[in-house]
Amino acid sequence: MVDKSYWSSDLPLPLSPSDKDYKIFLSYRRFGTVLLLGCTKKLIGLATKVMDIDPWFEGDYVIKQDWRTNTEKYDTIMIDGGLCFTKELCDDVLEMASKHSKTFVARSFNHKLDTMRIANYFPKREDFAIEPTETRIFKDYSFFIWEF
Known about the structure:
Order of helices and strands: HHEEEEHEEE
CATH class: Alpha Beta
Low-confidence stretches: 1-8
Mean pLDDT: 92
Largest sheet: 7 strands, mixed
Helix content: 10-25%
Shape: globular
CATH superfamily: Vaccinia Virus protein VP39
């Protein structure tokens, strides 16, 4: 069971996206359908559907499913921090997004922060099997954007 107090609360910056980060996600959102991978509280309003294996809330727009198993097409797929769990998960999510979206927007951490519990992998641009179209690098995290 997911610790609902953790996911449903506002995480401290930079774990939680800032207003500036929200605007970056918004600027790359294509018109049409948007799938948010994970339940990042601040980004839920940008999504048509939210997918997580154990979401902390329910609704008709919430899909309880492993991100890697998505087979539906979306104009945009977004993820916040989810590429940092393992290299295998990162590679699998990127492969899925390349097949099922026109745009994939990911905010990924550059290194482990003291307040992180489960992040173990911190990809760089050159680590991706498919090179990002654009990269925005900040102190603690980077945005990677793919246009397929």
